[in-house]
């Protein structure tokens, strides 16, 4: 298992982060709810982020990860 642990752990971390965000936004008493589900928000930045992570690993893609987080926050997600 020594060849690709960074990419696998990155994918798992992103998946877990998205699941956490999904549960946070459906929590009763939450502030303003986003109009979209997190998986459907910001498709442009999501695509760029995901492609970068697959090709280069999470560490090399901080710029795209941050751009996606900024977009998600603008859509009303608490990330």
From TrEMBL:
Residues 1-21 have a biased composition (Polar residues). One of its GO terms (cellular component) is mitochondrial intermembrane space. The keyword Mitochondrion applies. Keywords: Chaperone, Copper, Disulfide bond, Metal-binding, Mitochondrion. Residues 1-35 are annotated as: Disordered. One of its GO terms (molecular function) is copper chaperone activity. This is Cytochrome c oxidase copper chaperone.
